[in-house]
Design goal:
Number of helices: 10
Helix content: 25-40%
Strand content: 15-25%
Largest sheet: 7 strands, mixed
Oligomer: single chain
Radius of gyration: 25 Å
Number of strands: 18
Structural class: alpha/beta
Order of helices and strands: EHEEHEEEEEEHEHEEHEHEHEHHEHEE
Distance between the termini: 34 Å
């Protein structure tokens, strides 16, 4: 089954008309995208968009052989003119299947938002799933067969990928393509970095792909450390990296701090951001979690883990620190980094980057700063991917 992407952008395209934002200003050349529309084997057109015939011609294709035009989502604005010779666009009711004379079978997939997803099986058995903007499947059956290709709103609805992965509809060799791309993420390297973290990729408009042909699926880093200062956006970045995966275990190392209303507000804000399918555990006992098999871990954060570890070894007392505290803390850090080295789980950990500002005025403050710097360095050494978040922008240090 051959797929030509006539467009890969949001319904209004990218750049958006008359939008002065930085992302739209940078959406030039191959990063400029028309509204998403797919042409399958020259016979099936999914979503009719303005200029579809010209887009097909630029891609070296023709719409003269199209036998069916299906719409996946409500189209705002003036009605799109149907080019001469094309059948009138329609939609397949949820759960119903349409069989074309060309041998393609199209099943409508129910969504949790307005619109219809389409699961297409080609004449030779290749399977493709196309989801509209802002949509995720609803009511998926367990143990679904993996699709060869999935095209979805990866940036807007990463949880759609999590749902598909949870039931096996996305497997290790599924080619996940991001479509309906808008100005939410700057085009170019930043978009590619975010998509790769979700195991997805983007291609320019006009590209033709063979569904079922092996593609180099982005390698999702198994161990990632996200560093940053206060309110830098490091936790948001860490959470974003796992939004497309199911059953994430969020490990909160800060505790509840009874009576501290400001801390409670911070915790509540974090919980509001997390997908509903994630579970949360409050603990600083990280080593057993790293050594166990299980779903991805998000540890937030190592700096609070270190505070707890230093409390437990009496690190704030100079005499205790000199006698046995320093040695005990080194052992705790060694156990943690060794567990990170051998873990088989996907792990994203957050930590504060310190030492670039004012030197703490107390010995205990300087001790904490120094030990956190050592912990971050040791932990980063065991990670395939290390990021530094500054003003909400992630700078790749490794990976």
């Amino acid at each position: 089954m051959e797929l030509t992407l006539l467009g890969t952008g949001a319904p209004t395209g990218l750049p958006r008309p008359d939008c002065p934002c930085a992302a739209c200003a940078a959406a030039l050349g191959p990063d400029a995208r028309a509204a998403t529309a797919l042409l399958l084997d020259g016979a099936l057109l999914l979503d009719l968009t303005p200029g579809a015939a010209f887009a097909a011609a630029r891609a070296g294709r023709s719409l003269t052989g199209v036998r069916q035009v299906l719409l996946s989502h409500p189209h705002n604005g003036p009605a799109v003119e149907v080019p001469a010779g094309l059948p009138q666009p329609g939609r397949v009711p949820d759960g119903r299947e349409l069989t074309l004379l060309t041998g393609h079978r199209v099943r409508a997939v129910a969504l949790d938002a307005p619109g219809t997803g389409y699961a297409v099986t080609g004449p030779e058995g290749q399977r493709l799933l196309y989801l509209p903007p802002g949509g995720a499947p609803a009511g998926l059956a367990e143990s679904a067969e993996a699709y060869d290709m999935v095209l979805a709103d990866v940036v807007g609805r990463p949880d759609a990928l999590a749902k598909l992965r949870a039931v096996g509809a996305i497997g290790p060799t599924t080619d996940v393509l991001a479509v309906h791309l808008d100005h939410d993420v700057p085009p170019g390297p930043e978009l590619r970095r975010r998509l790769a973290a979700a195991g997805a990729r983007a291609v320019p408009d006009g590209v033709t792909l063979a569904v079922g042909a092996y593609e180099d699926v982005p390698d999702v880093p198994r161990r990632t450390l996200v560093l940053g200062g206060a309110r830098s956006g490091k936790s948001v970045e860490a959470e974003r990296r796992l939004e497309a995966f199911p059953d994430v275990l969020y490990v909160a190392t800060g505790g509840s701090r009874n009576g501290d209303t400001e801390w409670s507000s911070r915790v509540a804000a974090h919980r509001e951001r997390r997908p509903g399918s994630w579970q949360t555990v409050e603990t600083c006992d990280l080593v057993p979690l790293l050594l166990e098999e299980g779903p991805p871990l998000l540890v937030d954060c190592l700096s609070l883990w270190l505070t707890d570890a230093m409390d437990s070894v009496g690190a704030w007392d100079d005499a205790v620190w000199a006698e046995r505290g320093e040695k005990a803390l080194r052992e705790r850090v060694r156990e943690l980094t060794e567990a990170m080295r051998v873990t088989r789980r996907t792990v994203v950990a957050v930590s504060n980057e310190v030492g670039s500002g004012i030197v703490p005025s107390t010995a205990s403050g300087r001790r904490y700063r120094d030990e956190l710097g050592r912990l971050n360095a040791g932990f980063a050494a065991e990670c395939e991917h290390v990021l530094l978040v500054v003003a909400g922008q992630a700078v790749v240090l490794r990976g």
